[in-house]
Specification:
By secondary structure, this protein is an alpha+beta fold. The protein has helices at residues 13-39, 103-121, 138-152, 156-163, 177-186, 192-199, 202-218, 239-253; strands at 46-47, 84-85, 92-98, 126-132, 222-223, 225-228, 231-234. The longest helix has 27 residues, at 13-39.
Length: 258
C-alpha cells in the first residue's frame, strides 16, 4: 500500500492563503533577525550619515560563532556574474556590501580580500559576490555605476582593485566621470565609448538600486557589511575573523574545515 504524504496534494483557498502568510512571516522574521545584527553599530565600519549629519556608534556586532543569527540565503550564484569571483557551486558564499569611497572597504579590498582569494577562493571553497552599496553621495553612485560598466567588459575586479588601490578623500572629485574613464583606460578596458554609455545607462542605475535595496531590507546602514552563508559579519575586522568565519561555514555546510 503506497505511503501517504503528510503534505496535502490539494487545499482550500483559505488553507493556501494561510500557508502563504506563514511563509511570508517566516521570511520577515529571518530578515528581521539579520537586520537586528546589522543595526548594531559597526565599530570598524563606515556608516551613512543620518539626516541630522550624525552617525551610528557603539559596540561592534557579534561575529559568526558568537551567537549571531543566520540570515536569508541571498547568494545569486549566477554563472558568469562579472561582479563575483569563485566557483558558482562553492560551499561558502561571502556577500559584500561596499562603497568605493569607504576607507574601511578599501582596507578590506587591499588586505583581507587578497588573503581570502589565496586561501579559500583558489581552492574552490569560497565565492565572493559584490554588491554596490553607495552611501556617500553622487561620487559613490557614479563609481558604483562605473564598476558595473567595467564588469560589462569583463574588468570589474581590475577596476575594483584600482579604485581601492590607495586611500582617497571622499567627494573631492576623485570619482568624476573623466577620472573614472581614465581608470577604465588604465585597466585595459578597450571600448571607452561603450564604458561611458553603460556607466550612464538606466540599466546601471537599476543594477545599483537592486543591490542597495537588498542591503536596506537586511538593515545595512554602514559599509563594509558582509554575509557569510547568511551569517552577518560587520566592518573591516581582522583577516583572521573572516578566515575563521569561512572555516566555520565550511564545517556547517558539511564540507569540513580546510
Amino acid at each position: 500500500m503506497p505511503e501517504k504524504s503528510s503534505t496535502p496534494t490539494s487545499a482550500t483557498p483559505q488553507a493556501r492563503a494561510r500557508r502563504r502568510r506563514t511563509v511570508r512571516a517566516a521570511g520577515v522574521l529571518v530578515a528581521a533577525l539579520t537586520a537586528a545584527v546589522f543595526a548594531v553599530a559597526l565599530g570598524s565600519s563606515d556608516s551613512a550619515p543620518r539626516p541630522d549629519g550624525s552617525r551610528p556608534g557603539g559596540a561592534a556586532a557579534p561575529a559568526p560563532g558568537d551567537g549571531a543569527p543566520e540570515g536569508p540565503d541571498l547568494a545569486r550564484r549566477d554563472d558568469g556574474d562579472p561582479l563575483a569571483v569563485g566557483p558558482v557551486d562553492a560551499p561558502v558564499v561571502l556577500i559584500e556590501y561596499s562603497d568605493f569611497q569607504c576607507p574601511f572597504c578599501g582596507r578590506f579590498a587591499r588586505e583581507t580580500k587578497q588573503e581570502l582569494l589565496r586561501t579559500h577562493v583558489k581552492k574552490g571553497s569560497l565565492r565572493i559576490e559584490w554588491r554596490n552599496f553607495p552611501i556617500f553621495g553622487e561620487e559613490s553612485e557614479q563609481a558604483a555605476r562605473a564598476a558595473w560598466a567595467a564588469g560589462r567588459q569583463g574588468a570589474f575586479w581590475e577596476f575594483h582593485d584600482r579604485l581601492y588601490a590607495v586611500p582617497r578623500e571622499r567627494n573631492t572629485g576623485e570619482f568624476t566621470e573623466s577620472k573614472l574613464v581614465a581608470h577604465a583606460e588604465a585597466v585595459g578596458i578597450a571600448d571607452l565609448d561603450r564604458f561611458r554609455e553603460d556607466m550612464e545607462s538606466e540599466r546601471a542605475r537599476q543594477a545599483v538600486r537592486r543591490d542597495q535595496e537588498e542591503g536596506y531590507v537586511l538593515g545595512v546602514t554602514s559599509t563594509p557589511a558582509f554575509l557569510v552563508n547568511g551569517t552577518p559579519l560587520l566592518g573591516a575586522q581582522p583577516t583572521e575573523v573572516f578566515d575563521q568565519a569561512v572555516r566555520d561555514a565550511l564545517t556547517r555546510s558539511g564540507s569540513g574545515a580546510e
